[in-house]
Amino acid sequence: xKLYGSPTPAPNPRRVRIFLAEKGIDLPExxxxxxxxxxKAPEHLARNSLGQVPTLExxxxxxISETVAICRYFEEIQPEPSLFGRTAIxxxxxxxxxxxxxFQLMVPVGAYWRHFHPRTAxxxxxxxxxxxSNVDAYAKGQRWLDGELANGPFITGDAxxxxxxCALSTVDFAAWIGLPIDPECKNLQAWRERxxxxxxxxx
Amino acid sequence: xKLYGSPTPAPNPRRVRIFLAEKGIDLPExxxxxxxxxxKAPEHLARNSLGQVPTLExxxxxxISETVAICRYFEEIQPEPSLFGRTAIxxxxxxxxxxxxxFQLMVPVGAYWRHFHPRTAxxxxxxxxxxxSNVDAYAKGQRWLDGELANGPFITGDAxxxxxxCALSTVDFAAWIGLPIDPECKNLQAWRERxxxxxxxxx
Lengths: 203, 203
Description:
Two copies of one chain form a homodimer.
Chain A: E1 2-5, H1 11-23, E2 29-31, H2 42-45, E3 55-57, E4 63-65, H3 67-77, H4 88-115, H5 118-121, H6 128-148, H7 162-176, H8 186-196
Parallel strand pairs in A: 1-2
Antiparallel strand pairs in A: 1-3, 3-4
Helix pairs in contact in A: 1-3, 1-7, 4-6, 4-7, 6-8
């Protein structure tokens, strides 16, 4: 089994690294050099026709891409510690929160990076007005999540899950590109300290 | 159990309706009138703090939102016919394709609707240049999926799955807002005819 990835602060490879650390699975990344555009080279496009990392290659040659799908594969082959929930309602609840985090936080952060940040300006056509509007969208998402975090120590409530991994990798990446957590979001700040104290957060 | 929804051609409520039809589960929508802004009323915000439909309310009062999470709940309580896969690799493969369809097709269609279509212009601030750029992004997504569909009759290959439901509700909604399938995408056209012939497609 090979995990093609990149040791960047970008949320997607890091989500898988944190997930594997929480599971206690030792599978180092096989590095794809994004600066050398190795992810768009024919060799990697044969593994993932969209040229993305991370991509997981199984021993029979089949490849799985999309971060959460890769994590789900590891959850299925090694269910404990559970990070996607065990019962029907737990699984639905985790899936809901993964998607809420992705759509309310990760999407605006990604759009800001893609359409406003100077580091992507050289690579891609940007729509800067739209890009900048995501500062407000991300602020709104933070305030909403801050309110929800009054209900428990972790995103889904009492249990640490992949939803926390998605949120941590997003707020850390956002801070790295110039969008720190709103200091008025006290629950969100406390949650970030809580999950950052786990050994997996260094992945 | 109550399913709050809306009888619109919008992809999210329809994804759940098609999914339930494929499962043979009879659970009519409890209608939320979007034109009357009932989804943003306190009564519905108590069910879903983001004010979205669909939202599923269980008999104990817990609510699940996010379309795919709702479908996953029904998959867990009634596994057959399987629409999310049975084995680890099948589950990962379906999850990958759901996400690929969502990010490569549904996101550009949604951004075009949100930021360019005249019907949303009256309701929300639009970034029209960005909105229009999604015509190309959707065209690119269609060509990519058309190539992938050379590998089998359905999105994941041989088996019909929730990934087909996600893709059908997206291309149908896209056509409804003025973005029909590219006639050069023959595999995609044939796939659409194949899945549209299933009784569930009328949901």
